[in-house]
Amino acid sequence: MKICKALQDGTYIPYTPREVKADYPNVSFPRSWFEPTNVAKLEPYSVFEYTDNIPVVDPLVEKAVRGDIINTGGIHTQEYSIVPLSAEELAVVADMQDELAVKNLTVLRNFMQAGPTGIETYIANNVTNLVEAKQVLTMLAKIVWVVARNNFKG
Asked: Could you tell me the CA-to-CA distances from 51 to 13, 54, 67, 69, 137 in Å, in that order?
């Protein structure tokens, strides 16, 4: 259960039981008052339960941004806006997708098990033209990128 506090300007802010107790140090608040069936007992202190229904988004291109808590006929609800990811956020998502794709490559697992000699044998047996060479080089570059990224963060 989430609670909010009504401010004097008519807006609402998220609130915690600890904050309620700190704002009213001379009041003994039973723990049960912070349960959904008893939260109405907190209303004299301008404290209300609110729902926080985060909208479904496509996390590859957008995010939910918290707005105001609104009161509609005594029902308090957290509003959200759906906004596109920034260029920086999109770059992070792309990097994560590349890293996940590399980690899921069967070839990577095979290379890790084969070791340097096995990799050399794979290339000798499977790379016979420029197109195949480019594919292997691209795959190896991605593998190096993921390994470097995980080992040389700084």
From this structure: 13, 9, 13, 9, 52
* End residue of a domain, out of 84, 115, 131: 84
Does 70 lie in the same domain as 15?
A: yes
**20 touches 58 (CB < 8 A):** no
- The rounded distance, in Å, linking the Cα atoms of 122 and 19 is 63
Are 76 and 4 within 8 A, CB to CB? Answer: yes
Query: CA-to-CA distance for 70 and 78, rounded, in angstroms?
Result: 6
Same domain, yes or no: 98 and 25: no
pLDDT digits (tens, 9 = 90+) for 46-93: 999 999 888 999 988 999 999 999 999 999 999 999 999 999 999 888
| 48 and 115 in a common domain | no
**DSSP-assigned letters across all residues of 43-62:** GGGTEEEEE--PPP--TTTE
pTM of the model: 0.58
Give the chain's domain count. Answer: 2
Strands 47-51 and 75-84 turn out to be: parallel
Which positions ≥6 away from 54 have C-beta within 8 Å?
64, 80
